[in-house]
């Protein structure tokens, strides 16, 4: 080789090898030594097979190994060369045969294409990532169910970077904590775990709202503690955001000797952005679905409320009237209407409370539904009014249904002796073939008139039954008054005789003795039977029984004559009583008499906290309170009656 060409050979940037046909390296330039890390002496003692991996030797172009055939022209191929340190370098090789000193040789010009290969690999990987992201985007955007979306997010993210270990944590709207909702691989055992801010990769993302990448997890000071976490090699956490708000964390981990490089971080960052959008869409969709479901529920409830009675579940007046118009428009005959009115409901509400009244109304609904046909329309059209619309029902059928209703009421009362159910019933029928049949409104009025006539006929019997039920309720709630009413009636009769009162007033006094405390049915048991001392507020509540009793008596014709006495039976002679604060003779005579008799009977009856007092002691106590609590003249007369009856005891 001439000196001029030798200088070019030595100065060339590309590695140049001169090789014999048997593979011996005859010469190499400095670039070749630098490329492979060998000295010149080392290289010239080696063969091509020493610097080319076997897989490339076997697959080299046939032209190179057929140089013995002396084919002219350059030959080009790519392969890898082995460096002295054992690493490989991608090279582009151009070979050409030539004669040197009369011997056929090969000149190989070798160029390092590592960066080019890396660039190609990066491009290939980016294309792979972009394709995967495109597929992932389509997949994520098609998921509107949040659970399915989260599972897809973990699976797809793992596929992108080659791991099966992943999780998604979402913020809990109530507690504000981040909780692992979906997990895979290593994290499967931690589903439902609450993320502790600052602890582990998840906690760091929750605290900062930024990505967290740890490639030597075992050495990281903020790692989660526990032997099972020591198996992790690299962990990455990406924030999931809705606008500026952190709503979740998606995380992946390698449990093998791999790391999250720049490429993986970039693709996962983009993936997290897409996942955040998909999650926001799914969350919005779920919220809209929930809102629509709530609206449908509200609409259903409103429709129900517009046609049904909320207490009994029967149709209401609106629906009943609508059905009346529909049947009238259809010209259906025969058709009938039955009206039922619950007797004494107001009295029951005032005395036993609306809860008991509601139970009675519910019982009426049960009785009516059990007594009619499936085609009949049963409705509650007022507070205590029920109506039944009976299409294709003649007078005989309606009469039979009314009988069934009354029988059902009797059966109910046999099982519920504590409070009898009483209903007044009236009906009207428009028979088939009737000329000029009355409109439905007139049919309704006719049924209402018939019901009202029955109510008037039954009123006294009904009131008597309700009064007896109230008395039983009063006795059941106040065990200390057992026999109290009877004794009071007896003493009141004797005092009335001493005062020469009329038979009518004596009868009212007996009634007052029995019903003066009827208002107690309206006082809560927790106050009425409180074992300890009452608070000022509870005293006021107890005092209401006089007013409650007055209102009850006003609603029962038999008790109207004593209603005013019930209101005032706790007034005191000195004006310190309630509810009005009457004084002296302003207090009705009947109330003054009752106050003395009631106090005496209380003192001479056993109490849980004391034994009954001796009649003489009780009479002495009455005299002591004469002029303060009691009418002094009436007190003296009553004490004489007591002394005559118990003269031996009083001596």
What is this entry, summarized?
This protein is α+β, with helices and mostly antiparallel strands and 651 residues long. The protein is built from 24 helices and 15 strands.
Characterization of this structure:
It comes from Sporomusa malonica. This is PAS domain S-box-containing protein/diguanylate cyclase (GGDEF) domain-containing protein. It holds the Pfam family GGDEF. The protein has 24 helices and 15 strands. The chain has 651 residues and is of the alpha+beta class. The protein has four domains: 110 residues, Beta-Lactamase; 169 residues, GAF domain (Beta-Lactamase, 2-Layer Sandwich), CATH 3.30.450; 145 residues, Alpha-Beta Plaits (2-Layer Sandwich), CATH 3.30.70.270; 173 residues, Hypothetical protein af1432 (Orthogonal Bundle), CATH 1.10.3210.10. A five-stranded antiparallel beta sheet has the order 2-1-5-4-3. Strands 7-6-10-9-8 form a five-stranded antiparallel beta sheet, with helices on both faces. Strands 11-13-14-12-15 form a five-stranded mixed beta sheet, sandwiched between helices. A hairpin with a 2-residue loop joins strand 4 and strand 5.
In DSSP terms (H or I, runs of 4 or more residues), the helix count works out at: 24
How many structural domains are formed by the residues?
Answer: 4
DSSP helix fraction: 40-55%
With strands numbered from the N-terminus, the spatial order across the biggest sheet is 2-1-5-4-3
CATH topology of the largest domain: Hypothetical protein af1432
* Overall pLDDT score: 87
Q: Which stretches of 5+ consecutive residues score pLDDT under 50?
A: 62-70
The gross shape turns out to be elongated
CATH class of the largest domain: Mainly Alpha
- Alpha-beta content class: alpha+beta
Q: Tell me the Rg in angstroms.
A: 52 Å
Proportion of beta-strand residues: 15-25%
By CATH, the architecture of the largest domain is named: Orthogonal Bundle
Task: Specify the oligomeric state.
Answer: single chain
* CATH H-tier superfamily of the largest domain: Hypothetical protein af1432
Distance between the termini: 163 Å
* Biggest pleated-sheet summary: 5 strands, antiparallel
- What's the total number of strands? 15
